[in-house]
Description:
By secondary structure, the protein is mainly alpha-helical. It has helices at 7-23, 30-35, 38-47, 55-62, 72-86, 89-97, 111-138. It has 2 domains: 29-86, no CATH class; 88-155, no CATH class. It has 7 helices and no strands. The radius of gyration is 24 Å and the shape is elongated. It starts with 6 loop residues before the first helix and ends in a 17-residue tail after the last helix.
Amino acid sequence: MKKLYSIPLITSLSMAAALLSGCATTKLTPQQCQAQNWQTVGLADGEKGRSPNYFGKYLGECAGLTGTQPNRQLWEQGRQEGLKAFCTELNAYRLGREGYQWQPVCPAETSIKLENAYLKGRNKYLSNRAYDYWDDYWFPSPYHHHYWHRHPYFW
């Protein structure tokens, strides 16, 4: 009798399905559109550095539902409050250091300081990437034998 599926295969497929389902975005329900505290939503979006255009996502999700129009004014108040946590030099440096793109959502009066902090972090990120590349090139791990063909020692 031929075995069709093995336990590791079933386990790995179920784990992959669970991971992919966690990545899926969920659409707001009519109840969420009505009962949403838009200032709290805006605060969370501001802390993530989202632009004012992000509000269009909520308009689209709640469109066509009677009596469920998102409150842009409350959302924007919350977003401005959240941007105070996002628009710090430490956060700008962290975003650059981790390789994220800089989004110009912060007030103009702080933009130069924040962009300088971001560029310092970005330079650190790029230098670490270059170091990792050359480290792998000249000192390959024995587990990554596909790099060895590039080294004069192994020619």
